[in-house]
Protein: SET domain-containing protein
Organism: Pisum sativum
Amino acid sequence: MVNFQNGIMLVVPLELAITPMRVLQDPFLGPECRALFEEGDVDDRFLMMLFLTVERLRKGSLWKPYLDMLPTTFGNTLWFSEEELQELRGTNLYRATELQKKSLLNLYETKVEDLAKKLLNLDGDSEIEVCFEDFLCFLEPCFEYSNASFLCIS
């Protein structure tokens, strides 16, 4: 039973939560993600974004039906068209957006793209193309996750 008086609105069993630990323990993606994590080049948000990107694209993924219901674009400036972005030219927001987009694109090209393709090939989904937007669509939810407060009840 949920008790709204103590502020708890929803209780989700931990085994149904997608967490960094679940990513590291995943039989399919876990070994590759553990290796990246142990190298120290990535953090838990990156692991979550990689996991969610690959799982949304994998045809046989247990998580695919849920992930397909999530938004694929957001209202922040990373999703602005070139025309919309040009309206911000000369502002701090324009510069910050350009820098963030460049940084994320570099991360995608150097760490995500080939690894996601490799993982999809291992699963027999070699015809699926991975693109930057597939990765970017999980940026906002993963940063929200990192800022959220969770109460784990066993």
Observations:
- Residues 145-154 have pLDDT under 50 and may be disordered.
- Residues 63 and 129 are 19 Å apart (CA to CA).
